[in-house]
Design brief:
Elements: H1 3-6, E1 18-20, E2 26-29, H2 38-44, E3 53-55, H3 63-72, H4 75-85, E4 95-103, E5 117-124, E6 138-139, E7 161-165, E8 172-173, E9 179-189, H5 192-211, H6 213-218
Length: 231
């Protein structure tokens, strides 16, 4: 199965795609992956021992996920996103890919993303989701109110896709959730230096969590639903 079949930017033009430029540019698109690829992606998704986002390493993944990552990091894909969000030549920026298999309750606090990011895309891959808002992505108008949504929340199910331009008010987050929440994140960064710095930090975090996983689960487990950090 080739990359174009796995993620075709033409699917972004589905009639149910939601593109908005206020209060910050973002897009929510549904059904972005073919159903027939679901078993292969499920098989090839990395089986991290710890919760959180970790830098992409092809050796962690099977061939279908590697193909999908290749598709999501082409300049052509970036520019297709940029045209829809009003970002000129998004494909010129280096990409950082991180993957997540599961989360702890401390994750998902309201934030904007760091200033080193130009835009961030999230492709969700869970085959099922409980009947709850916990863990569902929300774009927000305030940094201190998880319920002040600017669009319907996005359930992190297979083929659901969201992307936004990083702004000082690009508030987003989700209610506390613990468990499997599979996602591929692609960030377009301001420089190669930032990519190197974030990759090193992510690798350190992965090593730390392998040793102190139980502590990581306890930290922030009782966080407030409106907990936030600026970036």
């Amino acid at each position: 199965m080739n990359a174009a079949v796995l993620f075709d930017p033409a699917r972004l033009d589905r009639p149910d795609t939601d593109i908005r430029l206020e209060p910050f540019p973002f897009m929510i698109a549904h059904g972005q992956l073919p159903d027939e690829a679901r078993p292969d992606i499920d098989r090839d998704f990395p089986r991290y021992a710890s919760a959180g986002f970790f830098p992409y390493d092809a050796s962690d993944c099977g061939p279908t996920v590697n193909t999908l990552v290749q598709n999501l990091t082409t300049p052509e894909f970036a520019n297709a996103i940029g045209r829809r969000l009003g970002i000129d030549n998004l494909g010129q920026y280096p990409t950082l890919v991180t993957l997540c298999r599961s989360l702890n309750k401390r994750h998902g606090t309201i934030h904007t993303d760091s200033k080193s990011k130009v835009a961030t895309a999230l492709l969700y891959l869970n085959t099922q989701w409980p009947d709850t808002s916990d863990g569902c992505l929300r774009f927000l108008s305030k940094i201190d109110d998880i319920d002040d949504v600017v669009a319907p929340e996005l359930t992190p199910l297979y083929g659901e896709f969201a992307v936004f331009k990083r702004c000082d008010n690009s508030f987003h987050g989700h209610l506390p959730f613990e468990g499997e929440r599979r996602v591929i994140q692609v960030a377009w960064l301001t420089s190669e230096e930032e990519k190197l710095r974030k990759t090193k930090r992510g690798k350190f975090s992965r090593a730390f969590k392998k040793i102190f996983g139980s502590l990581d689960r306890k930290l922030g487990a009782d966080r407030d639903r409106n907990a936030a950090h600026r970036d």
